[in-house]
Amino acid sequence: MINNLCLLSVLIMNKMKHICNDCGKCCQKTEMLLSERDIRLIEEKILNITRYEFTQLNEKGIYQLKNKDNHCVFLDIKSKLCNIYKIRPQGCRFYPTIYDNEKKICIYDEECPRISQFYLSHKKFKKTCNNIKKFIKRDLKIEIT
Ligand code: SF4
Ligand code: SF4
Fold this sequence. Notes:
Bound molecules: iron/sulfur cluster
C-alpha cells in the first residue's frame, strides 16, 4: 500500500511534470553547486556510486554536478526527467528561485521557460530566499552579504 509520503511525492512529481512539460532545460550544462550533504545523500542512496562519477570541482574548489553530453549526469535524456528526483540536490529543489550574486538578491531564473508557473507569494518567496542564503552560507560555505 502506498504511504502518504510516497503519495505526496508522486503528486508533486506529477505536478512538476505538468508544469515543466518535460522541458529539462535547467538540467542542461548544469553548474549546480553541491553541498557535502547533497553528495553524501546521493552516495548513500545509490548503490556503488562514488562522488567522482557525478561531481566535479569548479575553479573555486566547490563541488558541482557533472555533465555528460552537455547535460547533468542524472538527467534521463529521453523523458527529460531527473533520475534522482527524490534525492536531488538542494539547489535543484530551490530552482527556479536562485541567488544572484552580483545583485545580491534572490530572483527567478529567466532561463526557465515556464518561470511564471513557479511564482511564489511574497511571503513564500521571502522564506525561500532566506533558506537559499542559509544554504549558501552554511552548507556551501560561501560568504555572501
Ligand atoms: S527549466 Fe523550468 S520548466 Fe524546464 S524543467 Fe527546469 S524548472 Fe521545469
Ligand atoms: S540532479 Fe536532477 S534536477 Fe538536478 S540538474 Fe541533475 S537532472 Fe536536473
